[in-house]
Every structure is written in C-alpha cells, then in structure tokens.
Write a structure and sequence with these properties.
This protein is of the alpha/beta class. The protein folds into 3 domains: 72 residues, no CATH class; 61 residues, no CATH class; 174 residues, von Willebrand factor, type A domain (Rossmann fold), CATH 3.40.50. 34% of the residues lie in helices and 22% in strands. The protein contains 10 helices and 10 strands. It has a 6-stranded mixed sheet with strand order 7-6-5-8-9-10, sandwiched between helices. The longest helix has 21 residues. The radius of gyration is 30 Å and the shape is elongated. The chain starts with a helix and ends with a helix. The N terminus is likely disordered.
Length: 365
C-alpha cells in the first residue's frame, strides 16, 4: 500500500513539473517568488491540476449536493442568489517546489549544460568518513548487522542455537562498531558580483527586470556549486558596495561612469577571491548610457587586462530605458568581441529574461 502511494505521489510530481515546464516563461517573471528566496520550498500556483483524493461510497440522499438535483435548484434553501453556473471551473492548486527543482527544470527546458568549475579553483573542507570496523566504540555507532551475524555464528558453533526457538543473545565480544577518519573534501565555491547602474535613467521598471534576472542567475549557479557568495555594487558616477536590499531599493539619480563599478569589482576580487580558489562570475546591468566614450574605452581596458583573465564569465545585460543611449553594448562588441568569457544580452521586457538566461549559460562556463 505504501509503495503504491509513493508511486502515485511520484506520478503527481511529474505532472506538476510538466505544468511548470509548460508555463516556465511565465514563472520566470513572477515577482512574488522573490519574497520567498532563501527558503527551501516555494509555493507555486499551478492551473489545471486536481489533487488526488479518496471518494467514499454512494450517497442516495436527495437534493443539491446530495445526489440528483436540477440545474438552478437553491443550494442553501430559500433566498438563493440564482441558478448555478454552467462554465467549467479553472482549478488552481498551490504546490511546493524546491529551488533546486526549479533550477533543474530551468536547466532542462533551456537546455543548459552543467557548469564545469575551473580547473584547480577549489577549496577543501574537513568531514568525517566511515572507513572500517573496530571492536570498541560508542553504542550510537554499533554496526547492528555485523554484530548480529557474529552472535549468531558464535551460538551455532557452540551448539547454543535452537532453530525451533530462534533467539540470538549478544555478548560483549560480539559487538563491533563503525570507525571513521577525517578526510579533506573538495568543495567547488563561487562568487557572484552583481553591478548595477543606478543613474537617473534607471527607474523602477528597469530595476525590477534586474531583480528578476538576478534571482534566476542565483538559482542556477547555486544548483551547480556547493558554496556561493554574492556581492553587490551600485554606481552612478561613483561606485560602492552595498547589501542586497539596498542594491534593489536604492533610488536612482545622477550621471553614469561605468568604470567606477569595474574598479570596485577588481578590488573585491584582488582582496578577497583568489582566482586559484574561486570561480568568479561578474554581471553588470545598465541601460547602456555612459558619461563618455573615453570612459567606455577605459572599461574595456580594465576588463581585458585585469578582470577577464581571472573570471569564469563577465555577463553584461542591457535593459531598455527611454532615457539611455544604449551604446555601451556596442562598445563591448567592438573592442572585446574576441574574448570568449564575455557574454552580452538585451532585456527590453520581462519576456526577454528567459532568452537572456539561456544566452548567459548555454556555453556552460
């Protein structure tokens, strides 16, 4: 019975995942998911699924809701509100899905390859590993099966075992315990450094696009790495590191000097994230408006000489704004087109987030 229930549950989960795949582009743009970030499970409303349930016996009582009834019969007795509806209901079921499951669905649907951590860029952590058996140890580590076999063998060899009354009695010398040793476990770690233009041309609509895309970038990278750190940089003509909440809530104002953000990111990497130990991802979000052509060229110099040789990827996402020139993406294409680990995308509306994520991660870097 339990096996059958488990099988039914697995089939139900497959149906749920199928519905999510069908509406994946829509789910990517659901802002309410972001408020639940950090929890293991996220509740998602899924249309068109009935919850499996038991149905008990026949009910021969008469009346609406108790057997046969006529269309339009009063459900609550006299004083009803009129005839019942005739349209088919649109069932909506809230299901709990883990972020890992969502990330897997995202990867499968977008055909994203698994990310391969850079060569030796790993750190190690200590953990205990059970490696053998010994005669002494705490009772919590007693190996029951081996202890049972030793006691049974001893009783059979000594003639004390009675097949008609099979009873195995442990003695102290029968007991054996698991032994362990501390081992170094490789752990692939990564840091994501988000940079965002908060000048006057970046309004609430643009920041919402950034917020949604950053959420799914986080989800996918956390699925591929055991440890993730996220750092946040905002800039207008000056740049500085902020916390996550400030990153998405800071009010926009002033002009734009993109190179200021790149210099802060370079210092973060140099001071905290040795490329030999960390997989480093940079993402910059802007409407493409910069203070001058000379600053755009300086950005390319900083990227080429100090940052791109040490990072897995630099992703530039240009969001549409009615006030921005949108030229910075063209500068990157002109001066850094030969660099393999720089990837650019354009996001004009929420619907473009799906394609932008695919553009960033299809190379699997």
């Amino acid at each position: 019975m339990i096996l059958q229930i488990n099988n039914d549950h697995q089939r139900f989960r497959k149906i749920v995942k199928g519905r999510i795949r069908d509406d994946l582009r829509k789910f990517l743009t659901r802002g309410e998911l972001l408020g639940r970030e950090g929890k293991k499970l996220i509740s998602i409303p899924v249309h068109g699924i009935d919850t499996p349930h038991f149905r008990y016996g026949d009910n021969n009582d008469a009346g609406v809701g108790k057997g046969d009834g006529k269309p339009g019969d009063d459900v609550q007795g006299e004083g009803g509100m009129g005839p019942g509806g005739t349209e088919k209901g649109n069932h909506i079921l809230e299901v709990d899905v883990s972020l890992d499951e969502l990330a897997d669905i995202l990867g499968e649907e977008l055909q994203l390859p698994r990310i391969q951590p850079k060569g030796k860029h790993r750190i190690t952590s200590e953990r205990d590993r059970y490696t053998g058996i010994r005669q002494t140890g705490p009772e919590s580590l007693r190996h029951f099966k081996r202890t049972f076999r030793r006691a049974l063998r001893r009783q059979i060899m000594s003639g004390l075992y009675d097949p008609n009354s099979p009873r195995v009695v442990f003695e102290r010398k029968d007991k054996v315990y698991r032994s362990w040793k501390t081992v170094l476990s490789p752990q692939s770690n990564a840091v994501i450094i988000y940079m965002m233009d908060v000048s006057g041309s970046m309004g609430d609509e643009q920041k919402e696009l950034v917020r949604l895309e950053a959420f799914w970038i986080d989800a996918w990278l956390r699925r591929n790495y055991q440890g993730i750190e996220s750092r946040y940089i905002v800039h207008d003509v000056r740049a500085g590191e902020v916390d996550r909440e400030t990153f998405f809530r800071i009010r926009e104002d002033g002009g734009t000097r993109i190179s200021s953000a790149f210099r802060v990111a370079r210092e973060l990497i140099e001071n905290n994230y040795a490329p030999s130990e960390w997989n480093i991802y940079l993402f910059h979000f802007s409407d493409g408006d910069n203070s001058s052509e000379s600053d755009s060229r300086e950005c390319c110099t900083v990227l080429r000489e100090a940052m791109l040789p040490n990072v897995n990827m630099f992703g530039y996402c240009q969001v549409a704004s009615a006030y921005g020139s949108g030229n910075f993406i063209n500068v990157l294409h002109e001066h850094l087109s030969e660099e393999e680990n720089i990837i650019t995308s354009r996001v004009n509306t929420k619907d473009d987030i799906y394609d932008s994520i695919k553009t960033f991660f299809t190379p699997g870097k």
